[in-house]
Amino acid sequence: MIDTNEDYNEEKQCIYKDETYIVRDNGAVLRLPKNPNKVRPLDNKWTFGIQGDKGYSYIAGVQVHRIVATAFHGEAPSSQHIVDHIDTNRQNNRPENLHWVTKLENVLNNPITRKRVIAICGSIEAFLKNPSLLGESALDKNFSWMRRVTAEEAKISRERLEEWAKNDTPPSGGTLGQWIYEKQTFASKQDGKKLPDEYYNNYSENNYTEPEFIDSLTPYARQKYDRWRTPTEFPCVPTEEEEKTLENYLKKLKQGCVFSKNQYGVSIVDKAAFNKDKNALIVKTFNDSKENVKSGGHNSKITLQNGYFIHETIGSYFDPEGAEKYFTLAIGEEWTGGDVFDDYC
Questions:
Q1: How far, in Å, CA of 122 to CA of 114, rounded?
Q2: In this structure, is the dihedral angle defined by the CA atoms of residues 188, 194, 198 and 201, taken in order, positive or negative?
Q3: CB atoms within 10 A of CB 287
Q4: Residue 62 maps to a domain
Q5: Which of 4, 137, 189, 211 has a CA-to-CA distance to 204 between 20 and 30 Å?
Q6: Residue-averaged pLDDT of the chain
Q7: Does residue 72 lie in a domain region?
Q8: Radius of gyration of the CA atoms of the chain, in A
């Protein structure tokens, strides 16, 4: 996983929707203050944005890909133009993966885009009648596979797209972007990189099925693949000698204890409780490192399935009050504190 200070060669400045941004060619953006004497929480900070429920990244409600496209490709030629992610990965906001398109855009002259339009919309005619099909299609069934990519990964995906555009064989085993990027993941096995066995057991040349869970680094603990992919240790999980119940797990989740540990840091328990239905634990944590971590806190959910404690992340927050609000709602209690900063991020 790259960060905002990695893998870029160029910065440009642009104005989009009355805000001034500095933009890097790895897809990172920095918003400048409107008033130097009144710096907002998201000003002067490099970010890839926060992923929304449809896969796009946002900064303060503004789509990051439109900012990047404006900086590197100029303003939208008209109000009818949209930004298209060529490889279908909405987290790949590198300039070379973005272009402005409309009904009569050069989309029809680009073999990759033309082939993808047909795959997504059914035909060029269907796209011309309703260009919004390019953004919302039956192929976009989930966004969990989408991720930021290095320049090398973007180059490989572009080469695979060009190869795909030359033949008549449709991709199978997921969305077009998943088909491209999971092939890269599978290929990394040949480079000696250790990945969960589920990657290889579920992959064939023309078919890939995402695993629902992966094993954690702690016995009797697993992670929901689309909500927590980094192999992680959970020190408070009941041991082999202890009864495997959520009640026993909750007893060990005391304030100040280590909840999770992985290559990105250590998270500490702030509070934990059952949800309203008593079938899941909600854990509010903070990270011991501020590097690449939102300072407000983090909420996780734990369920018990077939003798395994299943862990998944349910939210990260800029402000402690945001973490508190969403913890309160997750356990089924009423929040009386009103709006919080994270409501608008």
A1: 11
A2: positive
A3: 20
A4: no
A5: 137
A6: 81
A7: no
A8: 22
pLDDT of residue 94: 96
Residue 167 burial by Cβ neighbours in a 10 Å radius (0-12, 13-18, 19+): exposed
3-state secondary structure of 181: helix
Instruction: Answer yes or no: is 298 within a domain.
Output: yes
Calculate the CA dihedral of residues 256, 258, 259, 260 and round it to 10 degrees: 150
- Judge whether residue 315 has pLDDT over 70: yes
Strands lying side by side in the sheet with 62-63: 50-51, 57-59, 62-63
| DSSP bridge partners of 58 | 50, 63
Residue burial 104-133, b: 16+ Cβ < 10 Å; e: rest: ebebeebebbbbbbebbbeeeeebeeebee
Within a domain: 296: yes
| Percentage, residues of the chain above pLDDT 90 | 41
Q: What are the contacts of 229-236 at 24+ separation with CB within 8 A?
A: 230/262, 230/263, 230/264, 231/196, 231/262, 232/260, 232/261, 232/262, 232/311, 233/260, 233/261, 233/262, 234/259, 234/260, 234/309, 234/311, 235/259, 235/260, 235/261, 236/269
Q: How far apart are CA 68 and CA 96, in angstroms?
A: 10
Question: Which residue did the predictor score with more confidence, 183 or 19?
Answer: 19
Strand 297-305 and strand 281-287: pairing?
Answer: antiparallel
Token couple for 105: 């855009």
CB 57 within 8 A of CB 51: yes
Cα–Cα distance, 325 to 182 (Å, whole number) = 36
Average pLDDT of span 305-311: 93
Domain of 267 in residue numbering reads as 213-344
Can you give the pTM of this predicted structure? Answer: 0.52
Regarding predicted confidence, which is higher, 105 or 177? Answer: 177
**Which CA distances in Å does 260 have to 284, 315, 329?**
12, 15, 22
pLDDT in tens, 195-213: 344 433 443 444 445 578 8
Question: Quick one: pLDDT band at residue 173, thresholds 50, 70, 90?
Answer: very low
Q: How many domains does the chain have?
A: 1
